[in-house]
Amino acid sequence: MRMVDLIEKKRDGYELTQEEIQFIIHGYTEGAIPDYQMSALTMAIFFRGMSEKERADLTMAMVESGDQIDLSEIEGIKVDKHSTGGVGDTTTLVLGPLVAAAGVPVAKMSGRGLGHTGGTIDKLEAVTGFHVEIDKAEFIELVNKNKVAVIGQSGNLTPADKKLYALRDVTATVNSIPLIASSIMSKKIAAGADAIVLDVKTGAGAFMKTLEQSRELAEAMVGIGNKVGRNTMAVISDMSQPLGFAIGNALEVKEAIDTLRGEGPGDLTELCLTLGSHMVVLAGKAKTLSEARSLLEKIIREGVALEKMKVFLSAQGGDASVVDDPGKLPQAKYTFELEAKKDGYVSEIVADAVGTAAMLLGAGRATKESEIDLAVGLMLRKKIGDAVKKGESLVTLYSNFEDVADVKEKLYENIRISAQKIEPPTLIHEEITQ
Ligand code: URA
Ligand code: CA
Q1: Which of 24, 275, 377, 381 could form a disulfide with 251, with the two C-beta atoms 3.0–4.6 Å apart?
Q2: Which stretches make up the Pyrimidine nucleoside phosphorylase C-terminal domain (predicted)?
Q3: Atom 6, ligand 1: which residue's CA is nearest?
Q4: Is residue 314 part of a domain?
């Protein structure tokens, strides 16, 4: 086989076979196929697309390019949740203990964040003593015992995707649905998921800005998952404004605890119940979505979710007393209010810009090397559609810097107030199953 012939084949719109895709991914990972040939191929894919079969073959070839986590020693159906990335998205911190309390095994491999705010590990490290540097045997034991554990990324997972993603980044081929879908799905499958619930974000703060694009991506991922024997479904949820109120690591941990207590923000609670119900059904712990939802609501109401959070935190060295006393989480030195300059209704809260404002306070990493300040961030006091009076707080800033003028300015530019009444955005747009 020659790479040049395969580039030509895809350029002319033909379907690549499984052997051809394996040859390409294997050769590229090993270095036998150079970047310039791979660039030509990704551009051909960008314009010609890929069939459902090609996407599934590409996904599995990338899975097989590196290590695969074997979770077979964990009892039950391992359901993973993946979000395509949002601002202040605290769902993982809520869903872990919540669905674990319903008997779903949550074996989460997580990373640190880059940009907006921290990743799940950064957030959890706001709890004194909590650590994810556990070995695989301990990880499996903890999931079997408590139904939930988080381990840091280790091993050589999907090296083909790492190399390909870096190449796509500099060849204007990131934004290709088959390439994005196979990239995301390969990582979930290599991490050992039996079933996958996808939270595809849509709106100004999301990777996919329109509902049409988000639906296309969701359908592509669901198609791949089901073709390779992983029960997969997707929820398309709103990211035109940040989710919940908190953006920042310790602030989001507190928000997750509030939600597990049944006192969380409405949108975060609703999204967690929706995603969680699908996880419970895919894991076979309820027959219908409404049965699953009632189960999760009961778990919250009776305090079982909160207890599970304590067990989860202390099993990995964390100080579980933060659950009853969130004042023990890292606290910022200063708070400032962003006061509304006029009366009206909040019409826009540009999610990614607000995420960047939190990053400027130190809540996120500008580069891989930056240190994160776990205590700082933002609490939204108003969401889209809320009425506001001049002088009322729109946002509270938690900062360790005394001067936050630039952050305030960025927030004023990206939170708009209109004289007309505004409807809040729809939270859950669609649910996509096979
Ligand atoms: N996120 C991924 O993991 N891969 C992509 O290709 C795009 C976004
Ligand atoms: Ca939040």
Answers
A1: 377
A2: 345-418
A3: 180
A4: yes
Q: Model confidence at 81, in pLDDT bands (50, 70, 90)? A: very high
Q: Do residue 20 and residue 89 come from a single domain?
A: no
34, 154, 308 from 160: Cα distances, Å = 13, 16, 37
Q: pLDDT, tens digit, for every residue of 274-323?
A: 999 999 999 999 999 999 999 999 999 999 999 999 999 999 999 999 99
Helices (H), 147-288: 159-169, 177-190, 211-227, 249-260, 266-282
- Residue 8 is part of which domain span? 3-48
Which H or E element spans position 336?
A: strand 334-339
| Cα–Cα distance measured from residue 173 to residue 179, given in angstroms and rounded to the nearest whole number | 8
What span, in angstroms and rounded, lies between the C-alpha atoms of 13 and 44?
Answer: 8
Task: Give the dihedral sign, CA 170/173/175/177.
Answer: negative
109 & 203 share domain: yes
Output the pLDDT for position 365.
83
Do residue 214 and residue 319 come from a single domain?
Answer: yes
Look at residue 54 and tell me if it is in a domain.
no
Query: Annotated catalytic, 131?
Result: no
Tell me: pLDDT of 220 over 90. Answer: yes
Question: At 117, is the pLDDT very low, low, confident or very high (cuts 50, 70, 90)?
Answer: low
User: If you average pLDDT over residues 155-167, what whole number do you get?
Assistant: 94
Task: Identify which of 55, 62, 80, 183 to mutate to test ligand 1's pocket (most ligand atoms within 8 A of the CB).
Answer: 183
Residue 10 shares a structural domain with residue 99: no
3-state SS class at 168 = helix
Annotated catalytic, 82?
yes
Which among 183, 214, 237, 277 is annotated as catalytic? 183
Q: Among 389, 304, 254, which Cα is nearest to 99's? A: 304
Which residue type occupies 206? A
Ligand nearest to the CA of 59: 1
Mean pLDDT of 354-359: 94
Q: Whose CA is nearest to atom 8 of ligand 1?
A: 180
Active site residue 161: yes
Give yes or no: 187 in active site.
yes
Structural domain count of the chain: 3
Q: What's the mean pLDDT when you consider all of the chain?
A: 95
Q: Which bound ligand lies closest to the C-alpha atom of 161?
A: 1
* Amino acid at position 145, single letter: K
